[in-house]
Write a structure and sequence with these properties.
The chain has 41 residues and is mostly helical. It is 71% helix and 0% strand.
Length: 41
């Protein structure tokens, strides 16, 4: 893979990942999970 193709693939993957977590509810869940274990009671 050449330099430009690599960058295009990298940016495409990054855009897909950021799109997947762009929902505010998903970001809140990620933040809560990063704080450690939680009870589900």
């Amino acid at each position: 893979m050449k330099g430009r193709e690599f960058k295009d693939a990298m940016y495409d993957g990054l855009a897909k990942m950021l799109k997947a977590i762009s929902n505010p509810n998903r970001l809140e869940i990620i933040e809560m999970l990063s704080q450690g274990e939680k009870s589900v009671e």
